[in-house]
Design brief:
Layout (H helix, E strand, L loop, with lengths): L13 E4 L18 H12 L8 E4 L6 H4 L5 H14 L26 H18 L5 E4 L20 H11 L4 E5 L6 H6 L6 E8 L23 E6 L5 H19 L3 E5 L19 H17 L3 E4 L9 H13 L11 H9 L24 H23 L1
Parallel strand pairs: 1-2, 1-3, 3-8, 4-5, 4-7, 5-6, 7-8
Helix pairs in contact: 1-9, 1-10, 4-5, 7-8, 7-11, 8-9
This protein binds zinc ion (ZN) (2 copies).
């Protein structure tokens, strides 16, 4: 549906939930997941003056209550995370927590290992609530998007699954939810949480699990039981880039949302599909992020009356590419002309101090140093997703009505 980019949102209609205390989610200096990525994002948005828009309303995050964590995690696991924090603070003797995915290479202990993930989760639930109450149309938690956390296990840098907890809050309120995940890694934790739930459609567009963590997300994972048909995976080949991401939205995500007719859209916008990302093998460039934002924004207004929760996700070039990708994404949501935006000198200095090397323009990107030959394989891939997953979604919708 066509919308005019300027001043389409009323005053205070877009909530941003953020506070400096979110930086306490910190596995340490040598870990790939650095809080710098969302700190510098909010810093850039704010230096550009974009958070001063009258449509934007800032809220400080509050921690998730135990009951909110228990909507998607087992009590035993939540207790294990509490114990992990006590151990990390030297209040309890060491214990073996590997069965919970804790105290591992990916998820090492740190002093706020309970409090910080609980705050991330509270922030996403709180952002969702501003939509459920009608206060906001769109809401954004740049620190959220921890999509790998499982019911009883930490995984892939994710301790609590804020995406799943926010979705569970919407279900409690009687809403049906579509979750779209464009992180380069499969959104396995969110998929697992709602695999047999017909009220949640999960769609993950990611680099195939063949060579990348977590290894799941194949086309034939389509949900089970009553949820059969409400899970879609688009496993892109390694080296896939902008064309693959954009076409995944037009070829699969759009048609799926039109079939499912959700009340609320939740998007996980990890930007680790960028060619400079050290953890993945994809070739996206910065200019694709505002394009993805506009396409998802249009879908939110077309399919969900605008109700749209945006959370962050992966992104492992924390001082440069990641904050620029997310600023471009959110700037496009605000209708800003991100393509012509110059980076403020104060921000470039801060980025350089933290190891970045940003150019003059927000979206300057030399592109990958190799060209992608995989685009020819996309039509066959989309055809297979249509035949196996979209067709099943269509069947489940017919059965429901
Ligand atoms: Zn809008
Ligand atoms: Zn990722």
């Amino acid at each position: 549906m066509a919308r005019s980019a300027e001043s389409e949102h009323a005053r205070g209609q877009i909530t941003v939930v953020y506070g400096p205390e979110l930086a306490s989610y910190d596995f340490g200096i040598d870990h790939p997941l650095q809080p710098t990525r969302h700190e510098l994002t909010v810093d850039l948005l704010s230096s550009l003056g974009w958070l001063d828009d009258e449509e934007v309303r800032l809220e400080s995050p509050r921690p998730a209550a135990l009951s909110e964590l228990l909507t998607v995690h087992s009590y035993q696991y939540v207790q294990a995370v509490e114990l992990a924090q006590a151990i990390a603070r030297g209040e309890k003797p060491p214990a073996n927590l590997a069965v919970y995915g804790l105290d591992t290479g990916d998820n090492p202990l740190f002093p706020d290992i309970y409090d910080a993930p609980a705050l991330y989760t509270g922030a996403s639930v709180q952002a969702m609530e501003t939509i459920l109450t009608g206060q906001a149309t769109h809401a954004y938690n740049p620190a959220g998007g921890l999509h790998h956390a499982m019911r009883s296990q930490a995984s892939g840098f994710c301790v609590f699954n804020d995406c799943a907890a926010a979705i569970a809050r919407a279900l409690e309120a009687g809403f049906r939810v579509a979750y779209v995940d464009v992180d380069a890694h499969h959104g396995d934790g969110v998929q697992a949480a709602f695999f047999s739930d017909p009220r949640v459609l999960t769609i993950s567009v990611h680099e195939s699990g063949r060579f990348l963590f977590p290894g799941t997300g194949a086309i034939d994972e389509i949900g089970m039981g009553e949820g059969k048909g409400t899970c879609i995976n688009v496993p892109l080949p390694a080296l896939a880039g902008d064309i693959a991401l954009v076409q995944s939205l037009t070829e699969i995500v759009g048609p799926a949302l039109r079939l499912f007719r959700p009340d609320i859209l939740v998007t996980q916008t990890g930007c680790d599909a960028h060619h400079a990302d050290p953890l993945t093998h994809m070739t996206a460039t910065l200019p694709v992020y505002p394009k993805l934002a506009r396409a998802l924004h249009d879908l939110a207004h077309e399919c969900c009356d605008g109700r749209w929760l945006i959370v962050g996700g992966g992104g492992y070039d924390p001082a440069d590419i990641t904050p620029r990708a997310w600023t471009a994404f959110f700037g496009a949501v605000l209708g800003r002309p991100v393509e012509d935006t110059l980076l403020p000198e104060s921000w470039r200095r801060r980025s350089r101090e933290l190891g970045g090397n940003p150019p003059a323009l927000l979206l300057d990107d030399p592109g990958p140093t190799y060209t992608s030959l995989v685009d020819n394989s996309l039509p066959a891939l989309f055809q297979e997703v249509r035949a196996k997953a979209l067709a099943e979604l269509e069947r489940s919708m017919v059965n429901e009505s």
